[in-house]
Prior knowledge:
This protein is an alpha/beta fold. The chain contains 3 helices and 9 strands, in the order E-E-E-E-E-E-E-H-E-E-H-H. The strands form 4 sheets. A 3-stranded antiparallel β-sheet has the order 5-6-7, with no helix packed on it. A two-stranded parallel ribbon has the order 1-3.
Amino acid sequence: GRRAKARHTGAFVWGDSTDADITSVAPDSVTLRASGGYRLFSNSNATTGVALPTGAGSWYTFSDRNGKENFAPVDVDTVLAKVVALPIATWNYKSQDPGIRHMGPTAQDFKAAFGLGESDTGIATIDADGVALAAIQGLNRKLEAQSSKLEARSAELEVRSRELEQKNAALERQVAELKALVQALADKVNGGGQ
């Protein structure tokens, strides 16, 4: 590389053609600068792996349909139920200061719940993302079903309300008629008694 400076013991530094120094930040560390981006492949034909595009701040996983096979449908309602039951906690890695907190499930619980990934000691972000998206679809389905029930109940209540309004109006007419009859009788009685 160019203008790469390893200033710490056990450090590896590589720099691209940028006309500026790139230096190590700690002993036993790796520092790389590739302003054109990074691609790391995990198979021989370069169809699976991860990339960090130019200027990006997070990795993306290659997820081309053409590199996948054995597609199977997902029961999003079951996934949602498993996400709800999945123990989530905050924690720190034993190798980090206890003040550096993280949040999420353990890989063992994730593997037991969903059966995804290579092992029960790590969670691939592509699997966590897929579970999250499926759970969102499950939640959406649940909300739509509840919304449909509420709309149907609301329509029933609206019909019932109209019926009650009509009955109430009829009762008010009858009460008015009765009041008129009572008044007429009272007038006759009072007028006839004079």
